[in-house]
Amino acid sequence: MKKKQYSTLSKVLTLLFALLCLVWIMPIVEVAINSFKTNASINTNAFALPNAETFTRLENYIKGLTFGNYPFVKAFGYSLFITVVSVALILLFTSMTAWYIARVNSRFSKIFYYLCLFSMIVPFQMVMFTLTFTADAIGSGLTIGGIHPLPLNTPFGIPIVYLGFGAGMAIFMFVGFIKGLPLEIEEATAIDGCGPIKTFFMVVLPMLTPTLISVGILETMWVWNDYLLPYLVLDRTKYMTIPILVQYLKGSYGSVDLGATMAVIMLSIIPIIIVYIFCQKYIIKGVAAGAVKG
């Protein structure tokens, strides 16, 4: 391809992707605009900019923070706790599992790896009823061999469920990256007297930093924004995450205050946008490293 033709194609693609970016960002812009408008103006013209009559300043945000019997701060705390614990469990256990799969060349490790990949393509709808039944049973005091397991229908138990659903993609990315790491480094640490645990945490884990960051970001975005799993598993009379709280921002007779709802949605979007902006450069690096190497 000639240089002039390549330049023209590059400009066309740049324009095309710029238009696609505008299409993707428009819903967020509309939510931000409507979060400063009155409920009546949102119903009549959701795409209009706020004016002197429809501009509410911070009233929608104040109403969203104090609306109903379940405070936003409490839902924010549960969302934050579930996200942090779930992502920490996923990163720790899947990185160790991936190291075992990549370094132990056995039939069991291969079968286990393919089962992890298979879990990535299983629709959540196939297991959600069984999962809900199990979570409710364990949460109601089910005993296994005389032992009371950790209730899954609480913020303290649901990270285990997220670990199961998030393990497939994480193991796939970690295995690809570990296969590209030089085995000689691990052999040298073994000669120096390091056992498997010390080798993993002191040698392998620091080298996994790019993939750890990229997997952490992707899993954080998933867990933080997830609605269906907490809605099905958690005891909603006691615990709500932000996506669930948005659904319950209703007044009498089922009326919805759209202004307060938009404000709460913006408050839930801002933290994840901040995380993504500061860490986005690691996502492509980690995905490429995990998908190409090995």
Secondary structure elements and pairings:
Blueprint: H1 3-34, H2 39-44, H3 59-66, H4 72-103, H5 107-121, H6 128-139, H7 158-178, H8 183-191, H9 196-207, H10 209-225, H11 228-233, H12 242-247, H13 258-292
Helix pairs in contact: 1-13, 3-13, 4-5, 4-7, 4-10, 5-7, 7-10, 7-13, 8-9, 10-13
Task: Provide a compact summary of the structure.
With 294 residues, the chain is mainly α. It contains 13 helices and no strands. Helices cover 72% and strands 0% of the residues.
Structure description:
- The protein is an all-alpha fold.
- It has a single domain, classed as MetI-like (MetI-like fold, Orthogonal Bundle).
- 72% of the residues lie in helices and 0% in strands.
- It has helices spanning 3-34, 39-44, 59-66, 72-103, 107-121, 128-139, 158-178, 183-191, 196-207, 209-225, 228-233, 242-247, 258-292.
- The longest helix is centred in the last third of the chain and has 35 residues, at 258-292.
- It is globular, with a radius of gyration of 24 Å.
- The model has no long low-confidence stretch (mean pLDDT 84).
Pick out its properties:
mainly alpha, 0% strand, 13 helices, MetI-like fold, 294 residues
Give start-end ranges of low-pLDDT stretches. Answer: none
Helix fraction? Answer: over 70%
Query: What is the CATH fold-level name?
Result: MetI-like fold
* N-to-C SSE string, H for helix and E for strand: HHHHHHHHHHHHH
Count every beta strand, where a strand is a DSSP E run of 2 or more residues: 0
Strand content: under 5%
CATH homologous superfamily name?
MetI-like
Number of helices: 13
The 3D shape can be described as globular
Taking all Cα atoms into account, the compactness measure Rg is 24 Å
Report the CATH architecture.
Answer: Orthogonal Bundle
Mean pLDDT over all positions: 84
Q: Classify the secondary structure makeup into a structural class.
A: mainly alpha
CA distance, first residue to last residue? 32 Å
